[in-house]
From TrEMBL, chain A:
One CC-aspect GO term: glycine cleavage complex
Function per UniProt: The glycine cleavage system catalyzes the degradation of glycine. The P protein binds the alpha-amino group of glycine through its pyridoxal phosphate cofactor; CO(2) is released and the remaining methylamine moiety is then transferred to the lipoamide cofactor of the H protein.
Taxonomic source organism: Blastomonas natatoria
Keyword Oxidoreductase found: yes
Protein name: glycine dehydrogenase (aminomethyl-transferring)
Source organism phylogeny: Bacteria, Pseudomonadati, Pseudomonadota, Alphaproteobacteria, Sphingomonadales
UniProt keyword terms in alphabetical order: Oxidoreductase, Pyridoxal phosphate
Keyword Glycoprotein tagged: no
Xref: Pfam families: Aminotran_5 (PF00266), GcvP2_C (PF21478)
PANTHER family: GLYCINE DEHYDROGENASE (DECARBOXYLATING), MITOCHONDRIAL (PTHR11773:SF1), GLYCINE DEHYDROGENASE, DECARBOXYLATING (PTHR11773)
Residues passing through the membrane, by range: none
From TrEMBL, chain B:
GO molecular function, one term: glycine dehydrogenase (decarboxylating) activity
Organism (species): Blastomonas natatoria
EC identifiers of the protein: 1.4.4.2
Function: The glycine cleavage system catalyzes the degradation of glycine. The P protein binds the alpha-amino group of glycine through its pyridoxal phosphate cofactor; CO(2) is released and the remaining methylamine moiety is then transferred to the lipoamide cofactor of the H protein.
NCBIfam families: PRK00451.1
Full protein name: Probable glycine dehydrogenase (decarboxylating) subunit 1
Pfam families tied to this protein: GDC-P
Gene3D superfamilies the UniProt entry points to: Aspartate Aminotransferase, domain 1, Type I PLP-dependent aspartate aminotransferase-like (Major domain)
Glycine cleavage system P-protein N-terminal domain sequence ranges: 1-443
Coiled-coil blocks: none
High-level lineage: Bacteria, Pseudomonadati, Pseudomonadota, Alphaproteobacteria, Sphingomonadales
Signal peptide range in chain numbering: none
Record's keyword terms, sorted: Oxidoreductase
Length: 526, 452
């Protein structure tokens, strides 16, 4: 997901509320504790670890011994635990409540996944161990890859991409390799305006020209306009399905056929696969490559911004170009790792390596654990419940919030609203900040760009009806306040650890690292 | 299905409330001929925790666990002791189950942690600034090369022969598509690095020189002359650090003049995990900050004037800039950055220096012992916790034979450079604080037996 800055206020308004009037001497508020930076509370002579004795040995550092201080504060173990525990309490998280961040699939993260990933047999093995000592690890990669291929109806899979955007890169490189292999120089990738920012960024990163595909008023790709643009210079299209308006691209098969006929390839952004897992296989819709965010559909934790994992499934046409390394089962039933060395014999047209080692193994074990827990039947239920929950939200709120595509039919896994109809001077941001005071993480805001003041709500399948009803009640009340022009919304949130933050100041005078405060002259003189 | 809170009654009530006859009404947009009517054939059905656990444990048991055997592998991934509190803290749900801090008022925990991380990373690398993490060292390395192209408007990068071959591989893959030229050759088995040679190769087309420190063979050499030479020609020096613990003992690349320093942060807090997830470190000089890839956390104030943190300078990023962004990265390695930062806080300067000292002393002890094995020579004159041995025969077979004896005795150069016959006898050995004197002795005696 992303949060666009354009058209969104980035400076806080004057504080009008009196909610925060009562001060305490510490700045703390009961359970809400302020916490200084490690640089302010630690010092470089304190440590929270006891080290083993070093044997006596002469230095062989080649005269490069570090002489100057590094400036790294240390804390005792107790202080460390307290510092990070206090920080953690200033975060909203799925474990606290519904986290309807559209396009991000903030579903419950089962703890069995964490337990399995920490088995020493997975957590404590080196990526370059001899192959016969890591057969179980290769089996995890193989088994997960097999599920992904079968769930998507594709021909092959690349497991090494590190996140969704890295998966996009993998797919685009495969497309370009396939074109080059047939001596076809094409320079343009078509991307809908509603696409996630990573799509155009990826295509441009490897030298493609990016052109917009227009959308129709119903929020889907304009197939005729797309067809009209196809030609010998178009390498491919990047289409998100379900798209970022939360709608299924009904005509994807027609689009794929047209693109193929014009000699191009179809990349599908699979960030929203959760809505359709087990319901439809992208391979049946003519897709050539699609990344799957394991940190979305397959519940590996988002971790405050990663790590993710972005395996890419491929059609017959693109599979031969998939990156190294990958796992292959040999005739004797053992698993082999195909790397640069064995590539000539097995995989001569691979476009090469895009990462050191094998990708996000720690995410593979979690995702496989999750998939085995759900099974084929459970995953189908996941998609159905995710879509049911999103439609329930859509239908429960369309009377108070403008839902631009709701009249035309159901949504998939996320419900999209606009700021149309709010009182003069009230914005999507006010609603988001108002929701914070109500105890919810806001939805994705100002994305996709095709809807004014977009609010993209993705409840996911792991929310109960009661939780949804609570959320709907809260959003309804905030939306009504925004429509009635309640000025206190402008200064929300009032009850979060911080009031609105000054993003303009942060960007104008970037302070990106801590520096020792300079003692003011006057103070020093006192 | 234990992760799904809705029951049949809920589903019916919800469908009824929206006037839908069945769940299929909500999937009408999927063309009928492509819509699946039931669970995909040939795949297992849902399973209880116990059954899943049994299956996963059976797979885990087929791997040889590093911690169970004398262990000497490195080459870009290092085994260090991670204090118990690190893993406890990163499993706090408020860290584990949050996402990118888009709503800063309720994400100050993650944001403050990132600000602390950026400062720690900048200081250890010797840079003015650092970002909030990349995927890993190899992708950070390519991002640095492409950043140097944007800054210098030149497209030829000189890669040191001591750069990790996987990092070279990633750069080669990308360069083929971006049109960058890379100058690179495999290392030779000498005690000196190729710095002198690199200086001679810099010309007016050079965008950057990329050098690893310590390098893939464990060698360390002063980068100052290279930095001067690069900068005098209008090029940048990019230093790559795959073992950050080394910087507790060695001068930082930034101190020696590097313009961009990238690294693999896995050593601290993260663990081996068969190669990922890891955490890419990315630092540079202040003047280049607007060309950096990835997220940056910055300090600001809230409406009441209290200090707080936000993501900033996002006009570099894909979600604002789209095709004009400095990189396509979105999700990074947040939780691994947290683990790195907690481990670094537990260590502090004193602990990091102490840890580096133990590593170096253990490595020197091991090198001196292994050098005595008949037929074995030590390549390095200088090293930190990793060095290269030259064996009298192909090192790959020795590594396999050692593994059969339950010793993970280093990474053979044959595995890393399968096409370079001259390197086949090279063995890269890493020794950290997790090795014991007994481990070293077991390694040495088994090596003796295998070479006899
Ligand atoms: C639609 C869409 N595409 C691509 C991405 C990029 O994925 P990642 O953040 O894993 O790189 C995201 C999410 O962030 C997304 O929502």
């Amino acid at each position: 997901m992303s949060m666009n800055n354009q058209g969104r206020p980035t400076r806080p308004a004057e504080d009008t509320g009196a909610a925060s009037a009562m001060a305490t001497s510490t700045g703390n508020r009961a359970l809400m504790l302020e916490e200084a930076l490690i640089f302010e509370i630690g010092d470089s002579n304190r440590t929270g670890v006891d080290l083993p004795e070093a044997p006596r040995a002469a230095s062989r550092l080649g005269g490069l011994e570090r002489k100057s201080a590094i400036g790294l504060p240390g804390l005792s173990e107790q202080e460390t635990v307290r510092h990070y525990t206090r920080l953690s309490r200033q975060n909203y998280a799925i474990d606290l409540g519904l986290f309807p961040l559209g396009s991000c699939t903030m579903k419950h993260n089962p703890r069995l996944n964490e337990k399995m990933a920490r088995l020493p047999g997975f957590a404590d093995i080196h990526p370059l161990q001899p192959i016969h000592t890591v057969q179980g690890a290769l089996a995890v990669i193989d088994e997960l890859g097999d599920w992904l291929v079968k769930l998507t109806g594709m021909a092959g899979v690349a497991m090494s991409p590190k996140a969704g955007a890295h998966g996009e890169l993998c797919g685009i490189l495969a497309i370009r390799s396939a074109l080059e292999a047939r001596g076809d120089k094409r320079s343009v990738i078509l991307v809908p305006e509603s696409a996630h920012g990573t799509n155009p960024a990826t295509a441009a990163f490897v030298g493609y020209q990016v052109e917009d595909i227009p959308a129709k008023p119903d929020g889907r790709v304009d197939v005729d306009a797309l067809k009209a643009r196809l030609g010998p210079d178009v390498a491919g299209v990047m289409i998100t399905n379900p798209n970022t308006c939360g709608l299924f691209e009904r005509d994807l098969k027609i689009i794929s056929d047209a693109v193929h006929e014009a000699g191009g390839f179809v990349y599908c952004d699979g960030a929203n696969f959760n809505a359709v897992v087990g319901k439809v296989r992208p391979g049946d819709l003519g897709v050539d490559a699609m990344h799957i965010n394991l940190h979305k559909t397959f519940s590996t934790p988002h971790g405050g911004g990663g790590p993710g994992s972005g395996p890419v499934v491929f059609s017959e046409a693109l599979a031969p170009f998939a990156p190294l390394p990958f796992v292959e089962r040999t005739e004797d039933g053992k698993l082999a790792l195909i790397e640069e060395e064995s590539m000539e014999d097995h995989h001569a047209s691979s476009f090469g390596r895009m990462v050191a080692f094998h990708g996000q193994m720690g995410m593979f074990t979690r995702a496989l654990t999750y998939i085995l827990s759900h099974g084929a039947d459970g995953l189908l239920q996941v998609a159905e419940d995710a879509v049911l929950n999103a439609n329930y939200v859509l239908r429960s709120l369309e009377d108070v919030l403008d839902a631009p595509f709701a009249a035309a039919g159901p949504c998939m896994h996320e419900a999209l609203f606009s700021d149309n109809g709010l009182a003069e001077g009230f914005s999507t941001l006010d609603i988001a900040k108002g929701l914070i005071d109500e105890g919810f993480h806001p939805m994705t805001v100002y994305f996709p760009l095709v809807v004014h003041g977009a609010m993209l709500v993705e409840p996911t399948e792991t929310e109960s009806k009661a939780a949804l009803d609570q959320f709907i009640g809260a959003l309804r009340s905030v939306a009504l306040r925004a429509k009635q022009g309640d000025p206190s919304l402008h200064s929300a949130p009032h009850f979060a650890p911080r009031r609105r933050l000054d993003e303009t100041l942060a960007a104008r005078k970037p302070v990106l690292v801590w520096t020792e405060p300079v003692v003011e002259q006057a103070e020093a003189a006192e | 299905m234990r992760y799904l809170p809705l029951n049949t009654q809920d589903r019916s009530a919800m469908l009824a409330s929206m006037g839908a006859a069945s769940i299929e009404d909500l999937f009408v947009d999927i063309p009928e001929e492509a819509r699946l009517s039931g669970p995909i054939h040939g795949l297992p059905m849902h399973a209880p925790e116990m059954a899943v656990e049994r299956h996963m444990k059976a797979l885990a048991s087929q791997n040889l666990v590093a911690g169970d055997v004398p262990f000497f592998m490195g080459a870009g991934a290092y085994r260090h002791h991670v204090p118990a509190s690190v893993d406890h803290l990163i499993q706090r749900g408020e860290f584990l189950t949050a996402y990118t801090p888009y709503q800063p008022e309720i994400a100050q925990g993650t944001l403050q942690m990132l600000f602390e991380f950026q400062t720690q990373v900048a200081r250890i690398l010797g840079c003015d600034v650092a970002n909030a993490s990349m995927y890993d060292g190899s992708t950070a390395c390519w991002e640095a090369i492409s950043m140097a192209r944007r800054i210098t408007k030149r497209a030829t990068a000189l890669l040191s022969s001591g750069l990790h071959p996987h990092y070279v591989g990633v750069a080669k893959t990308m360069a083929r598509f971006t049109g960058d030229a890379l100058v690179h050759q495999a290392p030779s088995l000498t005690a000196e690095t190729d710095i002198a040679g690199l200086i001679g190769q810099i010309d007016k087309n050079t965008s950057c020189v990329v050098v690893q420190y310590p390098d893939i063979l464990g060698r360390v050499e002063d980068l100052s002359a290279l930095a001067h030479a690069a900068q005098a020609a209008g090029a940048l020096l990019i230093a790559v650090v795959t073992e950050p613990v080394a910087l507790g003992a060695l001068r930082s690349p930034g101190e020696m003049g590097a313009d961009i320093v990238v690294g693999e942060g896995q050593s601290l807090g993260v663990g081996l995990q068969f190669g990922g997830p890891y955490v890419g470190l990315f630092g540079c000089k202040q003047k280049y900050v607007r060309q950096m890839p990835g997220r940056l956390c910055g300090e600001t104030v809230d409406a009441e004037g209290k200090r707080g943190f936000v993501l900033t300078l996002s006009t570099r990023e894909q979600h604002i800039r789209r095709e004009k962004a400095t990189s396509n990265i979105c999700t990074n390695s947040g939780l691994c950055a947290l683990a790195f930062s907690i481990h670094m806080t537990l260590l502090g300067e004193k602990g990091l220096r102490g840890l580096a000292q133990v590593n170096h002393a253990m490595a020197v002890t091991a090198a001196e012992r292994l050098e005595k094995v008949p037929g074995v020579t030590l390549l390095n004159e200088s090293f930190f916790n990793e060095f290269t041995l030259v064996l009298p025969k192909d090192a790959r077979s020795i590594v396999r034979a050692l593994a059969d004896r339950k010793i993970l005795g280093g990474v053979s150069l044959g595995r890393l450079y399968p096409d370079e016959a001259e390197l086949a006898n090279g063995l890269v050995v890493a020794v950290t604080e997790t090795a014991t004197v007994e481990d070293i002795e077991a390694f040495a005696t088994n090596l003796e037996e295998l070479l006899a």
